[in-house]
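Need tokens for this chain, all 279 residues.
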Amino acid sequence: MPLNGNLADFPLGDIIQLLNNTKKTGSLELVAGGDFSGETGKINFSKGKIISAASNKGLFGKSAFLHFYEWHEGNFSFVEMSIEGEVNIEESTESLLVEGARVITEWAKISGVIKSLSLVVNLAPAPPEGVSEIKFSREEWKILRTVDGKKTIREIADELKLADFEVSKIIYGLIASGLVEKVKEVGAISGVELSVKIKPEFYLIEEAVYIDSQLLEKWKTQYELKTIGKIVLHLAGAKDVIINVKPKNNLKGLILIPEEISSELGLKEKDKIFVEPLK
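Here are the structure tokens for all 279 residues:
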């Protein structure tokens, strides 16, 4: 019997623990949501033991497994089946669960400095004072070679085929040691795609659109803003529109637009548009 649900309701660790305890053999399919929308992954089990993992991002084995712990939104589905193919994970499932829990704990600390995977970093102009000798691990050196003041953390992770967590953890340490500096946030990466919902009976007092209040609160925390009064709509034809925004409950995944405004912008019901806060 298939097992499926939402990662927001059933954390990955709990799902794996259940499959391990019940000695299941089959494939756990994952579809990410939120900041990782568009990514998919798979974890294969043999009698409850994890034997392989892979993602469409090009990650395999333990890197893929740890990357899945970064997903807090999305869907999962487990189907019992015989599993054939390469084994790319040798660690016990119990030790993997411990490492997964560590990812969650360490992310809480890292996110205090690296608030978004859209962060761009660059090499510090000079080593910290008093430092005469610097030694790097192989992974640190690999990441340092890609730091150029242009790439985001996510782009570095994609280029090196490493989990975002692995790259963020190393860059966090390099920032703390004064060898790397934060440059800027690339805002578009933190935007979201919303589906248009048109409200014909709106009485247009102020030219504004409405998005979910929880999304606005998330952006305020992410960018350390007191208020968000305007957002950017990225429309077809490379056209950007800055417009007033108001919060409204229960609009997850939607942008509510008065009919008069939607007509001016050439938008129809259920159109998809990319939206980000004006910072």
